[in-house]
Write a structure and sequence with these properties.
Blueprint: H1 2-38, H2 49-58, H3 64-82, H4 87-110, H5 117-134, E1 144-151, E2 161-166, E3 173-181, H6 185-205, H7 208-222, E4 229-237, E5 242-248, E6 253-256, E7 263-266, E8 284-288, E9 294-298, H8 310-325, H9 332-339, E10 347-354
Antiparallel strand pairs: 1-10, 2-3, 3-4, 4-5, 5-8, 6-7, 6-9, 9-10
Helix pairs in contact: 1-2, 1-3, 2-3, 2-4, 3-4, 5-6, 6-7, 8-9
Length: 355
């Protein structure tokens, strides 16, 4: 009962807020009308564009169309009261009507979501921040260092690449997944919003060997037109350094061995991309991180472009990694991702190092 009462009070508060915003917008429109009527030589009818744009951000999709119609009606009344309509005033009125039409079309699109402009944008920003928070790495023992770096196509705030991290098993294991959703930039951003939350839940709830099969089943059930993704899953024992890698159509991980100074490419054996085949198998590749070793997981945007195949890109990654990481591991992922990959594709890089 108390919860229902709080919900009712919150709903009433929001309705009162919307009514106050409507009254403020109406007062602004009347103020503009008074200014045009009182000083027609100094104030043009184009001033009505100001309350139009203010209302487009403050009013909800149910009230905004009625406000726009009322505002245009007030403008026509003001023009009629002025009597003499010249060509300049006619052009200003036509432009205002065109702007009002665009605002109405935008309002009809927003009505599918049911929120105002500012609130809808804040929701998208919040969802984007949730994607990034899913990839925040948990606190690790002092002998381990891990870092992620993400870059989106064209610098847009939404990307199709993301990282999911977890530390189950009483903190002994570190589970990390790098995912590349089909598409890039904003086109893949909506799918990333959904998949990051789902994959985070699966990663925390399932044993390592069951994560990719469950993620594959989840994607198939979505029945998207572009419903596939690649992924690589690292399950790392923080005590022994033993790890298992499972890939789904994803570029292979590379490991730098501190003892020999050599780089090892761990092959991605047999795993198909997620969301294509039912009952797909994702075999594990095992290894061990010893003192000083580093492991890199990445998406294809970092190593592949139109003029270079993925094998050459992996070679370049190893070369750049050797030069940059020689100066220190800290901030290595950011330095590497800024040096490599196409700026027209999403890129993600995950660096794990045993000190």
């Amino acid at each position: 009962m108390a919860t229902a009462h709080r919900m009712t009070s919150l709903s009433g508060f929001r309705r009162r807020q919307e009514s106050i915003r409507l009254l403020l917008c109406a007062a602004f429109a009347l103020l503009c009308a008074a200014a045009v009527t009182g000083w027609p030589a100094q104030v043009s009818v184009s001033v009505f564009a100001l309350p139009l744009f203010v209302a487009s951000y403050l009013l909800g999709p149910r009230r905004l169309p009625w406000y726009v119609v009322g505002l245009l009606g007030v403008e026509l009344v003001v023009i009629a009261s002025l009597g003499d309509v010249d060509a300049r005033m006619g052009v200003s009125t036509a432009v205002l009507f065109a702007l009002a039409l665009m605002v109405l079309l935008t309002s009809f699109r927003r009505s599918q979501l049911g929120v105002t402009g500012l609130r809808g944008e804040s929701m998208l920003v919040d969802l984007r921040d949730r994607i990034l928070s899913q990839g925040m790495l948990p606190a690790l023992p002092s002998e381990w260092y891990a870092e992620t770096a993400l870059r989106s196509a064209g610098g847009t705030p939404f990307a199709g690449d993301f990282v999911v991290a977890s530390r189950p098993g009483n903190g002994r294991r570190l589970e990390l997944v790098v995912v590349d959703v089909s598409g890039k930039g904003e086109d893949a951003g909506t799918r990333s919003l959904l998949l990051s939350g789902a994959f985070s839940g699966l990663l925390n709830a399932l044993p390592p060997g069951e994560f990719l099969p469950a993620a594959n089943d989840y994607l198939i059930r979505q029945n998207w037109d572009e419903g596939f993704a690649t992924a690589i899953h690292l399950s790392l024992d923080l005590v022994s350094g033993d790890f298992a890698l499972r890939a789904a159509g994803h570029p292979p991980a590379v490991q730098r061995c501190a003892g020999s100074g050599r780089w090892t490419v761990h092959p991605s054996e047999g795993g198909t991309v997620l969301g294509v085949l039912e009952d797909a198998d994702f075999p594990a590749v095992t290894g061990r991180l010893r003192k000083g070793d580093a492991l890199l997981l990445y998406t294809d945007g970092l190593v592949e472009n139109r003029n270079r195949d993925i094998a050459m890109g992996i070679d370049r990654l190893q070369g750049q990694g050797e030069r940059l990481l020689r100066n220190g591991i800290d901030d290595g992922a950011r330095r590497l991702i800024d040096k490599l990959g196409s700026r027209n594709d999403d890129r993600a890089l995950l660096l794990v190092h045993r000190r």
